[in-house]
Amino acid sequence: MTDARLPDAFLTPGTSSFSDFLASVSPDLLPSRRVLPPGDAAALAPHGTTIVAATFPGGVVIAGDRRATMGNVIAQRDIEKVFPADEYSAVGIAGTAGLAVEMVRLFQTELEHYEKIEGTTLSMDGKANRLSALIRNNLGMAMQGLAVVPLFAGYDLSQEIGRIFSYDVTGGRYEETAFHSVGSGSVFARGALKKLYRDDLDQGGTVTAVVQALYDAADDDSATGGPDLFRRIFPIVSVITAEGHTRLGQDEVAAVADAVVASRMQRPDGPSAPLT
Amino acid sequence: MSMPFYVSPEQLMKDRADFARKGIARGRSVAVVRYTDGLLFVSENPSAALHKVSELYDRIAFAAVGRYNEFENLRIAGVRLADMRGYSYDRRDVTGRGLANAYAQTLGTIFSSGGEKPYEIEIFVAEVGDGAADDQVFRLTFDGQVVEEKDHAVMGGAADSVTSYLRERYRLGLSRDEALRLAVAALGHNDSADRTIPPEDLEVAVLDRTRTQERKFKRLLPAVLRDVLGQGPGDMPGDAPGATPGESPSGPEPTAPAAPARTDPSVSPGEEPPVAP
């Protein structure tokens, strides 16, 4: 871009949506406009795996492991898959890492752009729907193996609760109650959470439950990384409350993860839930 | 039979400049004041919905006076430019200088083109840096001139009297609240009589480098303003710098009219000419 006069498209009144603006001015920057040669491209790029989210009274916790895989190879040990979307929401990504990160950047810009132009933030449902539209535009690439499946969590300022949304590759948007997980380890994480989750857990309890679930996902899914005690690489955990989005410090997460690992030394399958 | 009149280029530009200046002079002023943790923007704006000060990007804010539709158009263009650049390069690559340049080119082209009427606006593009020395404030005029400002700057209808008030009383190392009181007093300053602007009629925002978020722009809500400014006319903000003894603001400077005026804050804001927000 040059520093000359602003092009007319910039000065034309119209959309508050950044992706719509991009589509009219510079469509080549949109990830969805890329044309792939036919064939399956799934093996070309690293994949992210397990994302877990759970609500608690006053907010929501979203967390992700740190492993990216390419086939049977660990492509990266400390990848980040949970990103703040705006001040009151975060998005975790499973699927093709490169496309997902790009989509998150677009989504972040989309929310911020709307906020600046309109002088007000989108509603929680509005944000969830915008993400839905971005995923829908990616359907062509998803069918060639480059799927992106995010998990969206945030604090709804009007309802004053934490909310979780999951998506399918067609952009279908589903609101989840209490907890949810996406990615290859999600079945194991969800099974763990099903036993550990209580709706009266506080923030600390919810963080522990989520880290336990990620441990179980890593235990049974080869593509999900457990806490790396030797390299001190721990899950990314974000907490969103009425005060906004906070990513827990590495020390805080390390303390929880160390406690979880220590208890697994006594009992490798994790804490037991009562039978009745 | 009619003869086309010859108008010299000098006269043409002068006429356009006079036209733009007249439009800007009708509006109320916006002041930007540097304080220890960032930049403070204060304007008199009774509307809570139509903003004169707003966020352009992480560390960059926009403030404007004059015709609302014209500066709003430029504001949106700036947001689009900033977001597009940040998305296609990186957030760090969006700079106040880049935006000020784009605005300057746009305003300059509009001003000197025969086809369009000149914009009746003035703009601040301000960027807060990691330290006070890195703060940048650009003031852009209707004809595309760019002036880099230090410490404090004012544009709009009463810019001259507000600027002189600020120049006499500004000192380095103001806290946010001190800067706010000073700026509000300056905006209420007038050659004939000072007035107290009620907090409800103020639009105040900061670029605060100490904010933990990447986005440093923050509006100050009326409740905060009431806390800082107080209610009664006895809290005349002009007295604030007096807190540091030996630095009396109303020293033996040639500002005699200001002193008696302060005892007579009787001019109500309603007597101001109606203006764009």
TrEMBL record, chain A:
A GO term, aspect molecular function: threonine-type endopeptidase activity
Highest taxon listed in the record's lineage: Bacteria
Where found in the cell? Answer: Cytoplasm
Active site, per annotation: T49 (nucleophile)
Q: Which UniProt keywords apply?
A: Autocatalytic cleavage, Cytoplasm, Hydrolase, Protease, Proteasome, Threonine protease, Zymogen
Q: What is its main location?
A: cytoplasm
Which SUPFAM superfamilies does this chain map to?
N-terminal nucleophile aminohydrolases (Ntn hydrolases)
What GO CC annotations are associated with the protein?
cytoplasm; proteasome core complex, beta-subunit complex
Assembly mode: The 20S proteasome core is composed of 14 alpha and 14 beta subunits that assemble into four stacked heptameric rings, resulting in a barrel-shaped structure. The two inner rings, each composed of seven catalytic beta subunits, are sandwiched by two outer rings, each composed of seven alpha subunits. The catalytic chamber with the active sites is on the inside of the barrel. Has a gated structure, the ends of the cylinder being occluded by the N-termini of the alpha-subunits. Is capped by the proteasome-associated ATPase, ARC.
As for what it does, the entry says: Component of the proteasome core, a large protease complex with broad specificity involved in protein degradation.
Q: What is this protein called?
A: Proteasome subunit beta
UniProtKB/TrEMBL annotation, chain B:
Cleavable signal peptide: none
**Top-level taxon:** Bacteria
Q: Where is the composition biased (Low complexity)?
A: 234-250
Which Pfam families does the UniProt entry name for this protein? Proteasome (PF00227)
Output the InterPro entries linked to this UniProt entry: Ntn_hydrolases_N, Proteasome_alpha-type, Proteasome_asu_bac, Proteasome_sua/b
Q: Name one GO cellular component term.
A: proteasome core complex, alpha-subunit complex
Pathway membership, UniProt = Protein degradation; proteasomal Pup-dependent pathway
Keyword Cytoplasm set for record: yes
The UniProt entry, under SUPFAM superfamilies, shows: N-terminal nucleophile aminohydrolases (Ntn hydrolases)
Question: Disordered: where is this region?
Answer: 228-277
Spell out the family assignment given in the record's similarity comment: Belongs to the peptidase T1A family.
Subunit (UniProt): The 20S proteasome core is composed of 14 alpha and 14 beta subunits that assemble into four stacked heptameric rings, resulting in a barrel-shaped structure. The two inner rings, each composed of seven catalytic beta subunits, are sandwiched by two outer rings, each composed of seven alpha subunits. The catalytic chamber with the active sites is on the inside of the barrel. Has a gated structure, the ends of the cylinder being occluded by the N-termini of the alpha-subunits. Is capped by the proteasome-associated ATPase, ARC.
Its biological purpose: Component of the proteasome core, a large protease complex with broad specificity involved in protein degradation.
Record NCBIfam families: 20S_bact_alpha (TIGR03691)
What is the protein's given name? Proteasome subunit alpha
Output the lineage of the source organism: Bacteria, Bacillati, Actinomycetota, Actinomycetes, Propionibacteriales
